[in-house]
Amino acid sequence: MDKKIAELTQAWLTKAQHDLIGSNRLAATDDITLDGAIYHCQQAGEKALKGYLAAQGHLIQKTHDLRLLIKECNAYEPSFQQWNAEADLLSSLVSSFRYPDQVPVVNPTRSEFEQAFAAAQRIYDFVLSLLPAETHPT
């Protein structure tokens, strides 16, 4: 793999890893910060998928839609299709708990956070399993 592509891939995957770590730390304090924690789950899944696309030399779109990203990844690796449910779940989180548009403001439950975190972790782990070690976060 070209060194520049490997570095860009690693940068995306490092950001995804940081979102997972940050999400876990926010959720560990108490349930009041689950809205921020769940948002970082969505971000981790998004950045992991963008990392895979970067490894393919694919032009990265500015999108938060994991369903679209899964479709793009699927063009290179058809087994990405197995992550459609996770992409649906995480895509719905990009704004659902982030903005106070609803009155009363609704916050995610611990169970919703745990489902989102598990989905993001599965996508992240899958992406890592497909890419060479040189692209993995250090």
Question: How does this model look, in words?
Answer:
- With 138 residues, the protein is mostly helical.
- 66% of the residues lie in helices and 0% in strands.
- The chain has 6 helices and no strands.
- Helix 2 packs parallel to helix 6.
- The radius of gyration is 15 Å and the shape is globular.
Which tags fit this structure?
globular; 0% strand; mainly alpha; 138 residues
Order of helices and strands: HHHHHH
Determine the structural class based on helices, strands and strand pairing.
mainly alpha
**Contiguous runs where pLDDT drops below 50 for at least 5 residues:** none
Oligomer: single chain
- State the helix count: 6
First and last CA, distance: 17 Å
Sheet-strand content, in percent, reads under 5%
* Mean pLDDT reading: 93
Helix content: 55-70%
Shape: globular
Reported for the largest beta sheet, the result is:
none
**What is the number of beta strands?**
0
Radius of gyration: 15 Å
Write a concise synopsis of the structure shown.
The chain contains six helices and no strands.
Topology, pairings included?
Elements: H1 3-29, H2 34-55, H3 66-74, H4 84-91, H5 93-96, H6 110-130
Helix pairs in contact: 1-2, 1-6, 2-3, 2-6, 4-6
